[in-house]
Specification:
single chain; alpha/beta; eleven-stranded mixed beta sheet; seven-stranded antiparallel beta sheet; 55 helices; globular; binds iron/sulfur cluster; Glu_synth_asu_C_sf; 3Fe-4S; FAD
Length: about 1650
């Protein structure tokens, strides 16, 4: 059977009609043709593209027709928990250029098509006519301007155009014009006049219309005598000054953003046309220019934006003035702070003191891209740096451990690291000056896709996807390639050629003698330290114990935190989340670090992998005085390099030792204050929460003054280049200032006074003990810390025998216990690892970028504390003041010293204490419940009551459980201090029988995502049975599920898809009701999961597609989710994999989660989970469990508010989880916005869990969290107990509804402050009312309904996934009878379907696969039963989860995600034969498939005749893939299957590979340097492997006609010796063991 199909392009999307009448434009005949039309005349092509752009809407994230338009037409400012500062955007980027600078319409046409065809990478809000922003930067159309501008123009290059957005109001517009004219005249520019652009807004939605600016151009001329460089510089200066001045004037008058001048571009070379437009609207909107036939350009840069909001913003659209950006700058806060810090040193060599007029360059009002563009402009105009050089400096490649770089290049990067920290985060930066340079650069991680074509006629096309200019024929293409991590694609327009990455970088790196400068001027702390004699640790039983108590050490600190670090070099693990009281509600003294939670990347920017991708990470930092960034000379690198931010005692001594400091002066500033002045009156209620003039606050102010004076120099001394804040003088008379406060306050003070760039800032401290402390100190500005007392504590641990006690199994003799130095080394190593993990969670690669980036949220601190010490850090609920913190400091101090009998010297100074009354270290039970200690939600009494209640189904017992837990809640959680409003309760007259029945309410319950592997099969199945019986849902977790369960009530309704992709097949996905994408988990947001090898039994390994006994670490979700548009793609993939199911995205609460949820809703998730950071059952390092993620109360409330503000709420169902335990908890969750509720510990306790927290050890005594057969046999849990639990909950929830006068849960959803309020009595009765009374929970209780009254506030609409227009419908029609036949056990003739394809054919073959999997089960169809032959560039995720029996063959090339989740099908991609004619195009040297091909493949085959991108075959667990070269990170985390590479590989091959085999052709023997040898060994191909490999290559040749493969086969005996076999060590051991067992069996 031959079925031919055609695919319409961007213009012709079926089944859609425009929401607003379109303007009448005669449609050329070609406009209705496929976009893969034959290339016709240039005019016809342009006409077609223009008409498409003006008239058509492609498939993208539009919604079903709306009943109303409730999006706000003006962006709200900070409102309750919504803060616009957290808005994110990701995008599609592209450029087209004629490298010979020939202007034409073709370039514009091509670029417009590129823009329109990347619409699916852009965003759309609730109104399909309102885009998130799109635009085009073009070269100056000189001929056009001469004809249409109305001015007599001088020669090209002697005039410039300022493209402006002016305020709508004419008076404000005139002021804006005057600002620009004034600034221009001041800089000597001539003014020709203003041109009003002819724009057409008839196609715009209401939001962009409401904020549409006036678009006008100011024509300016060059002053006589200036050269081109001078003209560029003066234009830049005039632009910067005009904008700053106008902004200042308008800010002073308190007007909004829309009343301010915004200059899109101001250049003699280029103009930016952009706005809050959809990609298709760009040409039509600027119709007076861009739609005219005589508008020609030699290059264009395009950008379509996907914002997480629906609010209008014209200026945030891109391209900007010199660049556009796909990605996110994760370190923006730090970059802005450091730019501010160095402003005082900035002096343009051209402008001198006037440089100050250009400052500030960065601003909180601008996006990350806007700030980046501002700095880029500054560097290129006010320093000698070229555009490529500036881009190299701002986004450096990974150079520290990169053996592939020359010494010269390394020296260049090291030198420039002394000038500026990297702007770090996933980034594809495209840049141009339209005159000499156009190019793009990719960040060191290379997470963004960037493919390019070079054509024989001298054009280059770079974009996020291939196939976006479909009329470029294969035979026109000279080179198909991609931008690699850290590399630069560059065209020199003057030379008319592409400059290879190596050439430009070598050229730039050899401009100056950087190596010489470094060796002369740069100092290394390790060199200084090596000159110090080993420092004696001050340790004795008595004073050490007192110091430990004073600095907040507990027995848990020693045993749970320090001991594992000292022994194993890594942090200790825990499990079951964090159920201890929040610091702001705790009655215990808590360190200031406990008030901070680490932020983590989710969705809009990926976390990265600090373990497997360590090669891109670095802790090395230059510190100390900076020089003028704009005038780079040899002295700029006169800085001190610190290799590890945790200093050794010797390093600290070196910093304070004049003899070894090469002339660097240092000052040690005492960070203690007098105990005498710190007595406070007993807390008085009227003072609570007010803040006060405490001794601590005064001490901080004094510390800042003294530190600043030390930097400035005083009393005739030069300023210090090194500041050490030291609390070493703390003792019986003096209190230590908490290090975090000291560092934060001094850093902020020096920033504000412009002195931070003049000195390095270190802390010599007693209270820095664990990873979180170090992460905070550095994150808030310290250049390094010396944990002086922690070193003492380690010595004490050893001295007390605890180290030996814990190592007894490995070291029988105490004499062999590591010495103090070795223990310190292990401890520092653990801190470094932990710090890398904290950085990686935020997607930050270098400590230099992380430092001062303030990537934390304060939870429960008074605004005064935040402003003084942590200015700019999110803090939403107020809390503990300096006063309250001081009370904790005093309490610890007094406990440490009050029993001491002072010994003093003759002068009265303290010299020690006697040996009596030395305090014991306290144990408040922060990690494990302790009677009388810290409050925990899971109490022994609560557990006993719950188990009794669920066994007996007794309401009374259940109520005592609820009372116990709710009482604890009041002392520990935000929800605990709320109450139902008495005025609402008073009014209720609803009868209980009128309230929604419990059997309906229980359908809202879900059990948490606990993987099969982390818990036993018995408990996993018991949960599923219980939830299926109830009508609720259980969740597979990330470990897959045994297919035998799919057909019965042991099936989990929710199938989770995590980065590990364990067991994720077409069959698995098709058997779900909901597919949940795990972006983050409560137990450890931003980290991957871990399953120790001893829990990977044969059964678990089979379910997961891994090797028994081999431990599993899931990667963070950065392989196929780099941004919001990638998440949108994955949502689309999964929806196609089960069209009847819904797709959920699991997020974790943190500031900005609402904004992310808005992006997720726009990306068409049907369901969103906002987890609390305290939930989760999995194992993780304690830092992950305790220090990341915020309470769900904040997360769900922020999400509800933000979604309603954006009118996106009714599109999604919201769920929350995280220590939900009682009916009260759940009803509060509903009131704050949640419609569904996931519980984990409650159901586990009902099944018998006794909270031993041994889940990660496989020793669970009740058979739940174990795979040990003997322990599993002890499992006694019954599904009925879980069912009882949920019904008991539901019945009490009904009573709550009744008391609130409601009859259904729907009424309660989002009621917030209408029914809830803070209970003042609970705050007053808190153990520390001085802290609790400072809380302000009003933002939490803000009713979202009031924020946007016409918007929906709960889920009422289905997302429109637009599956009806997908090509798969044709495929399914064509294969329908065949599938039916096989489903009934019959046989049918194979079919062949032929069709053209293009990049809009996304996820092709997946809906067909779902149909096959549902009809035929896991075996699918017989091999090759359906063959789909495609011609063109296939869209993303070709063949996602392709089922057995389906073959997709592409003649052309493929985009990212090809063969992802391959589930038994076959994918073939090979080049067009016409392209190969003449032999100019060598497939094995060109890229044929994008990034993450075959990611998570479980079975099947893939053959690629050409080179693959980065991350090829990541997490392959069973497929065969053959390719002719791959990028970085090939076979990462692979656990099974085979991979054959017939060409070069990138770096980090096989990182984390624990199963399967790879064969790599390596004739030059260079592969070993590219391979990560951590888990694999290399060897020759021998024995039966030889035939196996030969068979794979034969298949490849048969499928693709590969000449590389054919040549190898032709000389096979010789060829085979050129291959290397990559074999995971553990996998090899398992195979050998299996072989031995088989042999034994055979013998027996
Ligand atoms: S009883 Fe088992 S499941 Fe419960 S916390 Fe302990 S080890 Fe984990």
């Amino acid at each position: 059977m031959l079925v031919r199909g055609t695919r319409t392009g961007a213009a012709a999307v079926r089944g859609r009609s425009p929401a607003r009448p379109r303007k009448a434009v005669t449609l050329p005949a070609t406009a209705t043709m496929s976009s893969s039309v034959q290339r016709t005349s240039r005019a016809a092509r342009y006409a077609a593209a223009s008409a498409r752009a003006a008239l058509a809407r492609p498939a993208r994230y539009a919604v079903a027709p709306r009943r109303h338009l409730a999006a706000l037409t003006k962006a709200p400012g900070r409102t309750a928990l919504y803060d616009p500062a957290h808005e994110r955007d990701n995008c599609g980027v592209g450029l087209v250029a004629d490298i010979n600078k020939n202007p034409s319409r073709v370039i514009l046409t091509d670029c417009n098509e590129m823009l329109v065809r990347m619409s699916h990478r852009g965003g759309c809000g609730c109104d399909p006519q309102s885009g998130d922003g799109a635009g085009m930067l073009v070269a100056m159309p000189d001929a056009f301007m001469r004809k249409h501008s109305g001015f007599e123009l001088p020669a090209q290059g002697d005039y410039a155009v300022a493209m402006c957005f002016l305020p709508q109001d004419e008076a404000n517009a005139e002021r804006a014009r005057k600002s620009l004219e004034r600034a221009s005249r001041q800089r000597g520019l001539g003014i020709l006049g203003w041109r009003v652009l002819e724009t057409d807004n008839s196609d715009l939605g209401e939001a962009p219309l409401a904020s549409e600016p006036r678009v006008e151009q100011l024509f300016l001329t060059k002053k006589q005598g200036w050269d081109a460089r001078k003209f560029d510089q003066e234009l830049y200066r005039a632009q910067a000054v005009a904008q700053l001045e106008n902004f200042q004037i308008m800010s002073d008058e308190g007007v909004g953003e829309d009343a301010v001048l915004y200059i899109n571009s101001m250049s003699p070379h280029q103009i930016t046309y952009k706005g809050q437009l959809t990609p298709e609207q760009v040409l039509g909107y600027f119709s007076g220019d861009l739609l005219r036939d005589d508008f020609h350009t030699h290059l264009a840069l395009v950008h379509s934006r996907f914002s997480t909001n629906t609010f209008p913003s014209w200026s945030r659209a891109q391209p900007l003035r010199q660049m556009c950006h796909n990605g996110e700058i994760n370190t923006l806060r730090g970059n802005k702070n450091w730019m501010r810090a160095r402003e005082g040193l900035l002096k343009s060599p051209y402008l001198g003191d006037d440089t100050a007029k250009l400052l500030p360059v960065t601003s909180d009002e601008m996006s990350d891209s806007g700030n980046f563009d501002g700095v880029l402009q500054l560097l290129t105009n006010e320093s000698a740096m070229s555009l490529p050089e500036a881009a190299m400096i701002m986004v450096p490649e990974a150079w520290q451990d990169n053996d592939g770089l020359t010494d010269e290049k390394k020296a260049f990067y090291e030198y420039h690291s002394c000038l500026m920290e990297p702007w770090d985060g996933p980034a594809l930066i495209a840049f141009t000056d339209s005159n000499k340079w156009i190019g793009a650069t990719l960040d060191r991680n290379g997470l963004r896709p960037a493919r390019y074509y070079e054509t024989h006629d001298g054009r280059v096309l770079v974009s996020s996807e291939v196939g976006v200019v479909p009329w470029v024929k294969p035979e026109e293409i000279k080179v198909r390639s991609r931008l690699e991590p850290g590399k630069m694609f560059l065209v020199d327009l003057e030379e008319g050629r592409i400059i290879p990455d190596d050439e430009i970088k070598n050229r730039v790196a050899s401009q100056k003698p950087y190596q010489e400068w470094l060796s002369t001027h740069t100092k290394y702390l390790s060199d200084w330290a090596s000159q110090q004699k080993p420092q004696e640790l001050v340790f004795d039983d008595e004073t050490t114990a007192r110091r430990l108590v004073m600095h907040g050490y507990t027995t848990e600190t020693m045993e749970t935190l320090l001991a594992p670090m000292a022994i194993g070099g890594k942090e200790g693990f825990g499990s079951m989340g964090n159920d201890a009281a929040l610091a702001c509600l705790s009655a215990e003294p808590r360190p200031v670090s406990d008030y901070f939670k680490q932020l983590f990347a989710q969705v809009t920017n990926p976390p990265i992998d600090p373990i497997r991708e360590e090669l891109v990470m670095s802790l090395v930092c230059p510190v100390g005085p900076e020089s003028n960034l704009l005038d780079a000379g040899e002295n700029n690198c006169a800085r001190l390099v610190v290799e590890h931010p945790v200093l050794t005692p010797e390093e600290l001594a070196a910093l304070q030792d004049d003899r070894s400091r090469d002339g660097w002066s240092s000052a040690t500033v005492d960070a203690t204050f007098a105990r005498d002045g710190a007595d406070q009156p007993a807390p008085s209620p009227e003072m609570f929460g007010q803040g006060s003039d405490s001794a601590l606050e005064r001490a901080l102010a004094d510390l800042c003054e003294r530190a600043a004076r030390a930097v400035q120099g005083s009393y005739g001394r030069d300023g210090a280049a090194i500041i050490v804040l030291s609390d070493a003088l703390a003792g019986p008379d003096r209190l230590p200032i908490p290090t975090l406060l000291a560092v934060g306050a001094v850093h902020q003070h020096l920033l504000k006074t412009g002195q931070r760039g003049k000195a390095a800032l270190f802390a010599d401290c007693g209270d820095v003990k664990e990873v979180h402390d170090v992460a905070l100190a550095v994150g808030f500005g310290a250049d390094g810390v010396c944990p002086r007392v922690a070193y003492e504590a380690l010595a004490k641990l050893r001295h007390d025998g605890l180290i030996h006690a814990k190592m007894r199994n490995d070291i029988p003799s105490p004499d062999d216990v590591p010495d103090d130095a070795e223990i310190r080394k292990a401890y520092r190593k653990a801190l470094a690892k932990g710090l890398l993990k904290v950085m990686s969670k935020m997607g930050i690669s270098t400590l230099q970028s992380y430092k001062g980036a303030q990537i934390f949220e304060a939870l429960g601190l008074h605004p005064d504390v935040v402003e003084t010490c942590f200015s700019g850090t999110p803090s939403r609920i107020g809390g503990a003041s300096f006063d309250a913190i001081q009370r904790d400091v005093v309490a610890l101090h007094d406990h440490a010293w009050s029993g001491s009998k002072r010994q003093t010297d003759p002068a009265g100074a303290w010299t020690g204490v006697n040996h009596e009354d030395v305090p014991q270290l306290p144990n408040p039970g922060q990690f494990h419940y302790r009677n009388g200690g810290e409050v925990h939600l899971n109490t022994p009494m609560g557990m006993v009551s719950l188990q009794a209640a669920t066994k007996s189904n007794s309401r009374d017992t259940f109520l005592s459980y609820c009372r116990e837990v709710d009482d604890v809640n009041a002392k520990s959680t935000l929800r605990g201090v709320l109450r139902w409003r008495p005025d609402v309760l008073d009014k209720s007259s609803v009868r209980l029988e009128d309230v929604e029945p419990a059997k309906e309410i229980v359908k809202r319950f879900v059990t948490g995502a606990m993987s099969l592997g982390s818990i036993s099969r018995e408990s996993h199945e018991a949960l599923a049975v219980a939830m299926n019986t109830l009508g609720g849902k259980s969740n597979t977790g990330e470990g897959g599920e045994d297919p035998v369960r799919f057909g019965d009530n042991r099936r989990s309704s929710i199938k989770q898809v995590a980065s590990g992709r364990f067991g994720v097949t077409s069959h698995y996905l098709a058997n779900s009701d909901q597919i949940q994408i795990k972006m983050a988990q409560g137990a450890k947001p931003g980290e991957g999961g871990e399953l120790p090898g001893f829990k990977v039994s044969d059964y678990i390994a089979e379910c997961r597609g891994t090797t028994p006994g081999v431990g599993l670490i899931s990667p963070p979700p950065h392989h196929d989710i780099y941004s919001i548009e990638d998440l949108a793609q994955l949502i689309h993939d999964l929806k196609c994999a089960n069209p009847e199911g819904e797709v959920s995205v699991k997020l974790v609460s943190e500031v900005g989660v609402g904004v992310i949820a808005a992006g997720v809703a726009k990306a068409k998730a049907d369901h969103i989970v906002v987890s609390g950071g305290d939930g989760g059952t999995g194992a993780a390092a304690w830092t992950g469990i305790k220090c990341a993620g915020l309470p769900w109360e904040l997360g769900i409330a922020e999400t509800q508010q933000t979604l309603v503000l954006n009118d996106l709420r009714d599109r999604v169902r919201l769920q929350t989880d995280g220590q939900l335990k009682t009916p009260r908890d759940i009803c509060i969750a509903a009131a704050l916005g949640a419609e569904e509720y996931a519980l984990s510990t409650g159901p586990l306790i009902a099944l018998g869990c006794i909270m031993m927290r041994k889940c990660h050890l496989n020793t669970c005594p009740v058979g739940i969290a174990t795979q040990d057969p003997e322990l599993r046999a002890k499992f006694e849990g019954q599904p009925e107990h879980v069912i009882n639990f949920f019904f008991l909950l539901a019945e009490e929830m009904r009573r709550t509804l009744q008391s609130l006068g409601m009859t259904s849960m729907d009424e309660l959803v989002g009621a917030a402050g209408d029914v809830l309020e803070v209970d003042p009595a609970k705050l007053r009765s808190n153990g520390r009312p001085d802290k609790a009374m400072g809380l302000d929970l009003a933002p939490l209780l803000q009713s979202a309904r009031e924020l946007n009254p016409t918007a929906g506030y709960r889920h009422t609409q289905l997302q429109d996934h637009e599956l009806g227009i997908k090509a798969d419908n044709e495929l399914m029609d064509a294969a329908h009878s065949l599938i039916e036949t096989y489903a009934k056990g019959g046989e049918a003739e194979p079919i062949v379907i032929e069709r053209e394809t293009n990049n809009l054919d996304r996820t092709l073959g997946t809906m067909l696969s779902a149909k096959v999997s549902k009809a035929c089960g896991k075996p699918g169809l017989p091999d090759d039963a359906v063959r789909i032959k495609l011609e063109g560039s296939s869209g993303q995720s070709l063949g996602f989860a392709l089922a057995p029996g389906i073959t997709i063959e592409v003649v052309g090339d493929a985009n990212d995600g090809c063969g992802k989740g391959l589930s038994g099908g076959r994918v073939i991609v090979r080049p067009n034969l016409t392209q190969l004619e003449g032999g100019h195009f060598i497939p094995s040297e060109n890229v044929i498939v994008g990034n993450v091909a075959c990611y998570g493949a479980t079975a099947g085959e893939a053959f690629f005749r050409g080179v693959g991108g980065e991350r090829f075959c990541v997490r392959n667990s069973g497929a065969l893939a053959v390719v002719e070269g791959v990028g970085d990170h090939g076979c990462e985390y692979m656990t099974g299957g085979r991979m054959v590479c017939l060409g070069k590989t990138g770096r980090n091959f096989a990182a984390g590979m624990s199963g399967g085999i790879a064969y790599v052709l390596d004739p030059d023997r260079v592969f070993a340097d590219k391979c990560n040898m951590g888990m694999v060994e290399l060897g020759p191909v021998e024995g039966e492997d030889i035939d196996e490999l030969k068979g794979y290559i034969e298949k490849h040749v048969a499928a693709t006609e590969s000449t590389v493969g054919a040549d190898l086969l032709a000389d096979w005996d010789n060829s085979v010796s050129k291959f290397v076999r990559v074999m995971p060590t553990d996998y090899k051991a398992v195979l050998e063991k299996m072989k031995a067992e088989e042999a034994l069996e055979a013998t027996a």
